[in-house]
Every structure is written in structure tokens, then in C-alpha cells.
Amino acid sequence: MTSWMTDGHAYKRINCVPKTQRDVAAFIRENCRYESVNGSMFGKAPGDRYTSQFYLASLTHNGEMMKRVCEAFGYLLHDHGIEIGEIQLAGRHWSALPILGAMSYHFGVNTFSIRRERKTYGKHNLIEGTVDSKPVLLVDDLANSTNSFAFCQSFLRSNGIPVMDKCLCILNKKRKDDATFLWDKYSEQEIIWLTTRCQVTDK
Fold first, then answer.
1. What CA–CA distance (Å, rounded) separates 137 from 129?
2. Burial category of 9 from C-beta neighbours within 10 Å (exposed 0-12, middle 13-18, buried 19 and up)
3. pTM value?
4. Which of these ranges, 1-15, 91-105, 114-128, 168-182, has the smallest mean pLDDT?
5. 68 lies in a domain?
6. CA 139, CA 194: separation in Å to the nearest integer?
7. How far apart are CA 25 and CA 32, in angstroms?
């Protein structure tokens, strides 16, 4: 990841992202997608029901899979004109933690997480980690799932912390035929994704 110009890296780029996309999609399909037995399951919001849901913890807690996810993320960011050394990463406390930890280890990039509510003990933190002066790229396991990106975006802007108009995720839950496929419906940020609902569900 130190150079994008060598033949070795050019060759790796051609093969890394598509293969990782296929492998991640297969892993999610086999280990992280849950179908309702009776045709519907409860969502987070009152009255919400789904026929299936995604829980990516089995993926984000798998060291080998996250190593490959980080490599692919690096190339995807480069493709979008984002240099990893010129940004910092942040996300919702808990859901984004495995990704932030893996990216910090893999690239040495600064990361921090944002809590929904201030801790009621210790230092009473809202932010875990250290914020520097670089623009923030928000990350999460899912896009178009909950308002995690919008919550973090609002918090950062209200505190004068520069946040990018793009966000990074493993799985974009929208189908490609959806008009909002390219953007997170809550934060209206452009999504950089590794795989999509279509690749995971074949529909």
C-alpha cells in the first residue's frame, strides 16, 4: 500500500477488489443474512418489519476477512481520489469499532468513534479516541440501514470538525434500481461501498 505505481501494485489492484467483493458477498450471504421464519421480523423503529436482516459482526470480527476488506478499501479510496494519509476515519461507537480498529492497524490512520450519548461514568466521553485537524471520512458496516452516518455527520459539523461528503461502508443495502442507490438516504453522502444488496441476495 506504500506505492500505487509499481507493476506489482497495479497487478494486485486488478485482482484485489473484484475478488474481495465476491468473497465478502459470499461470506455475508452464508454467515450474516438472516431470514424470518414467519415472514417478518421486528426492526428498530416501532412498527418496522423485515423479511430478512443483515448482521455483519461475523464478518467484522473475522481477522482474515477484515484484512482483505481493508486492502480493498484502500484501493477504493484511491479510486475516488482520497489519499488515506490525508484523512482521519470516524464512525458510530460499537458498530464501526471493528472497522476503525482494522483500518488504523492496517494503514496507521487516525480513527475515533462517536457515542450516541455521553458516558455516565469515568471521563463522560462523547468521543472515544483523539480528533486531529484532517477531514473526517465516516465509516460503518452498513449504509442505508440506520441513521448512523447522519448522526455522526451532524455531530461533527456542530462541533466545527470537517466531514467529507462521502462515506465508506462494507455493504450498501440499497438495490441498484433504487433512485437513491449512490447516496446514503439519511446523510445524503455519496457511498463508497465494497459490496451491495444485489451481490449478496442475487436480487
1. 15
2. middle
3. 0.85
4. 1-15
5. yes
6. 12
7. 10
